[in-house]
Every structure is written in C-alpha cells, then in structure tokens.
Amino acid sequence: MSMASLLRIILSPLILLLISITISASESHPMQGFCSVECDTELTSSSGKILIKQGTVVNAHHKVVADVYIEDGIIVSVRPNIAVGDDVKVIDATGKYVMPGGIDPHTHLAMDFMGTGTIDDFYTGQAAALAGGTTMHIDFVIPINGNLSAGFASYVDKAKKSVMDYGFHMAITKWDEAVSKEMELMVKENGINSFKFFMAYKGALMINDELLLHGLEKCKSLGALAMVHAENGDAVAEGQKRIFDLGITGPEGHALSRPPVLEGEATARAIRLASFINAPLYVVHVMSIDAMEEIAKARKSGQRVIGEPVVSGLTLDESGLWDSDFTTAAKYVMSPPIRKTGHDKALQDALATGILQLVGTDHCTFNSTQKAFGYGDFRKIPNGVNGIEERMHLIWETMVESGKISVTDYVRITSTECAKIFNIYPRKGAILEGSDADIIVLNPNASFRISAISHHSRSDTNVYEGKTGKGKVEVTISGGRVVWEEGNLKITSGSGKYIKMPPFSYLFDGIDKADAAYLASLRSPVHRTAATY
Ligand code: URP
Ligand code: ZN
Ligand code: ZN
C-alpha cells in the first residue's frame, strides 16, 4: 500500500468528523446528499489536466464527435484523437454529450425577503447547481435601504463561500442622484451590467413608472441591461385584499389574487416604456401566455426584448396550490404565480421557436417552517421555489427528449444565450479553445429522479418531487475541476470566482445609429414667422 493511500485511510475519518462538526455547527437541518469535500484525490488529476474522450461535443452552433483537453481550468484543445500522458485524468464520454455547463441567469441565494432569508446560500445553492450540471449563476444583489454599494458589499461577503463561478445583477429600489451615480460605479468598477426593476411587491421592492423611466435611461447610457419583474403591483395589492376578504386565506389565494392579466399589463407597459427610451429590455420569469404574447409582438416589430421563462413555469401548473395539505400547497407559491395548465405548453413552444430566448430558475428557496409564516394568510407565505439543481434535467426532458428542440438549441437556451446577453461569451457558454473549462457530460440513456430526500438544496421540499426523465448529468467540471462524478460532489468552499460582466453586450449594437436616425427624422423645430397680434 502506498504512503498516500495509507494517509488517506487514516485521515478520512478525521476529515469526515471535521466536516460533520462544521456542518452541524452552521446548519439547522441535514445536508442531504453531500458526500465529500476536497479530500478525495482520486476524482481529479492533481496536475489539473483532464481529457474527455470520444463524446459528442455540443456548442450552440455545432456538434461533433471529438476529445476535449483541459489544463489549469481552461479548454486547451477540441479535436479528435488527442494523445495524452499518464498524469492526465481521462473521462470516457463515448455515446454521451459533452456540453457547456449550464448558466442560470436568475437566482436568489442568501437573500433577505419577506421577513426571512432564503434557505440556500452560496454554498448549498451552488452545490445543488453543480450536482445538476449548472456551473455558473447570476444572482440579484438587493441594495440596503436603497444603497447599492452597501448591498454589493454584503453580497461580496455572502459569496465568499462560493464553490463555482457567479456574477451579479443588481436591483434598483429607489431613485436619486446617489443611486444614479452608484449605478455608474457598479458598471464601471464592479462588473455589473444589468439592473432589475420590480414592478410588484408594493411597499417593499416595488418601483413606479417614473423610476422605471429614469432607470431605463440610465441603463441605456451605461450599456447595462434593464430587467423587469413584470406584474402590476398596485393591482396585485388590490387583488390580494379582495381575495382575502372573500375568506380565501390559503395558498390558492396567491394565484387568484394575481392573475395573468396583471402580468400581461406590466409586461406590455415595461416594453412600451423601453421602446419610448429605445433601450433593450429583459423580462424575467415569464409565466403566462399574456406576457409571452407581449414579448412576441414587440420582437416581431423589431424591439430588443428578451424573455426568460423559468423551469417552474415551463413544467408545472397551478394545481398544486389547491392541495389540501398546506405544506404541499405553500411550496408552490412564487411570483408571478405558476399558471393554469396550458400556459406551460405555450411557454415551451415559445422557447422552442425563439420567442423566448433562455431559461432561468428563479431559485429562491424557503423551507416548510418558513412557508408556514403564511398559514392563515397567503400574503405572508415567502414567495419562491427551487430549481437550480433541476433545471438542466427538466429542460432536457421537456424540450429535447420530447423532440421539441435540438441538442444544439438545448445548449443555446441553457448556457450560450445567457453568456451572450450578459457579455461573457465565449469565455462562458462554449466548448472552444480558450473557454473556461465549465463542462458537463450528459448520458442520454441514463435517467434521473427528483426528490427532496436526495437533492442538494437545504430545503425540505421540492416542487418537482417525483419527476423522472431520461438524460442524466453524470459529470460536472467547474473551472477545470471534476466536482460531480458517480453521484459524488467534491467541492471547496471559496473556490468559486466572481465573473465581472462588461457593459454593451450585442443587444446595444446599433442603438446609437437608430437614435441618430430618429433625431434626423424629426421635422422640428419648425422655423415660424413671428406671431401677429
Ligand atoms: O417568487 C419569487 N419569484 N421570488 C423571488 C423574487 C422575485 O420576484 O424574483
Ligand atoms: Zn421577480
Ligand atoms: Zn427572482
């Protein structure tokens, strides 16, 4: 027996003991599914060299059978028959798909919201992501009392335990000169190129049209993308009161109080205001036909509008909210609500045909105890569902396995388009020489099954409980490290990198020309003779 093996046998129980002490000291619940941390040297090569052999390498533009060679976190070569030495870890991907790791454009890890905090932080949320084939996510920084720098600093701190790469969007919750100046700082110094405006959550995060107009103007001048949570917050507040006063206090009241028409209205309004400013717009969590059709109409007329459906909206319907068990029903509460059956299929079709462009999760988890804050009053149920671990599998099953889209389109909607929109392509979102080695190996013949018993989120429930399908992420490589293999996670707190995202993505190309053409077209001012009295 080698000295290294002997040491590992002696040290393993000690390391596991240390891990369990750390976990039980910092968590109030079991860490389901966690197997190991950075202690097993067999899973990856110490040289940082990996060869993925004979897989079908899929990019958004092309797929080909080839080998992928990785060194020090970067993809060095993509071509057939790469020969390597003994110091290289070899992964056989014959018959499997080798694809860019997923990028989730929409998450809320460690977010303070509705009087509590999301249960997944940057460690557990990212662990879940990696186990499900997502290697980067973009989280929403929430300002502190409207202060952007304070919000940013607090998220930098929260993200210290990251185990994979991440970026930040930032919410704008109030407007004054200081906010306007700070937006500049965020873009120019801090690598943020997108700002979210909540048109709902009255009395908390909600902004009005005047602020949205200021925000759109500012975003445009900075080359930053304006994002909207599109629901009419005033009408939602009215609807909530109306439904509650009818004596409907349970989770079903959530859906009844904020129907699709309120999402459609706000989406249309945001789109028209963006058109008025001539600024690109990104609509987050598109949940209804009503909102999707507004996006379709705007895109058809040439407006730069991006629509992001989320996994819950694509694969669930609202029936769970009527479950007679409160805990089961409450887990489905998110905003905008999961809609009646029919909306899900329409969103899938819109995604397949390019009306909607990329898929997020809005991963924003609360456990049953937190959801129970709203027992007897649906308005107090913390809004949010899981999805960061399930997205890649459910989208494969719903969109590829069903025959709705190609494998290359799968890569586009789960990874590449996000990298392009947020201006980090081809560093992310591609398997090309020089790209970051964020890669998954998906076996189309293996199957997955989702359950709160085995998932990696800290939540005790899962809105996709019991869902099964074909296509399983068997290997995840993050930053050139094998972090998920044979059902084992191998992650290191602090190993994730903050990815700065530069402004002026492709969505801004030509905007200046369109503005110049508009100005040139104005038949004003009119030179008039003086008025006669
Ligand atoms: O219910 C949701 N969506 N919770 C997260 C906050 C948001 O609106 O994105
Ligand atoms: Zn939202
Ligand atoms: Zn969200």
TrEMBL record:
InterPro entries: Amidohydro-rel, Hydantoinase/dihydroPyrase, Metal-dep_hydrolase_composite, Metal_Hydrolase, Metallo-dep_Hydrolases_sf
Family in the record: Belongs to the metallo-dependent hydrolases superfamily. Hydantoinase/dihydropyrimidinase family.
Cofactor(s) listed in the protein's UniProt record: Zn(2+)
UniProt keyword annotations, A-Z: Hydrolase, Metal-binding, Signal, Zinc
Amidohydrolase-related domain segment(s): 97-483
GO cellular component term of the entry, any: cytosol
Modified residues (N6-carboxylysine): 196
Domain of life: Eukaryota
Keyword Repeat: no
Organism this protein belongs to: Dendrobium nobile
Protein name stated in the entry: dihydropyrimidinase
